[in-house]
Amino acid sequence: MTTFVLVHGSWAGGWNWARLRPLLEAEGHRVLCPTLSGLADRGHLAGDHIGLSTHIEDITRLLRWEDLDEVVLVGHSYGGMVVTGVLGAVPERIAHIVYIDAFRPEPGQSAFDALPVLPDLFGEPPAEHPWGWSPVDLTMLGITDPAELEWMAAKCTPMPTRTHREPLPRPDHDASGVPVTYVHAAAAAFFTETAQKAAAAGATVVTWPDAAHYPHVQHPQRTARLLLDLC
């Protein structure tokens, strides 16, 4: 049995893995899909105090309190910022790290540093929640199926601004021995350069030309097979 910890992206929550999780569990694996502080079912905790460091602590504490070792740690989109921080904090607990069309920042980089196009895409937070951005138009991220749009739009919640402005801390430990897989969903061009840099750094890069930014939603069977092949 492998333990998978799946970390969602901006505006989302643990719910975002609903199509992928049962496919992994059906093969006998343990799957944890935590919601990061201030989002979705933990949205009541939202505010300008929630940043990247909060979310790194969320997942690091989960691994410690659940006594998890040999974990396959998966991050989607902004979740790549989080899992990179977790890897630097507790590499001894991680057997493999997987980025699904995600940030893979360097220490000292914020999400906005890594992808400078984002401030224009996100705009300014509205007056009703000045601490966080409203969800963007998901069609820009490759979600076009009406049922998928309805499902995701109903569950997405504002994203605290500090999460994308706070830089990744320097790692506490050397994590160079942990294998890395990067899934590049090439139909959405946001992370093309990130995938190239990952390959240059020695990661295994898998490119899906027909997949947009949410392959675990749009192609759950394919995503499950990739993760199961790591077991």
TrEMBL record:
It holds the Pfam family Abhydrolase_6. Residues 4-225 form the AB hydrolase-1 domain. SUPFAM superfamilies: alpha/beta-Hydrolases. This is Alpha/beta hydrolase. InterPro entries: AB_hydrolase_1, AB_hydrolase_fold, Sec-Metab_Biosynth_Hydrolase. The keyword Coiled coil does not apply. GO terms for molecular function: hydrolase activity. Keywords: Hydrolase. The keyword Hydrolase applies. Transmembrane segments: none annotated.
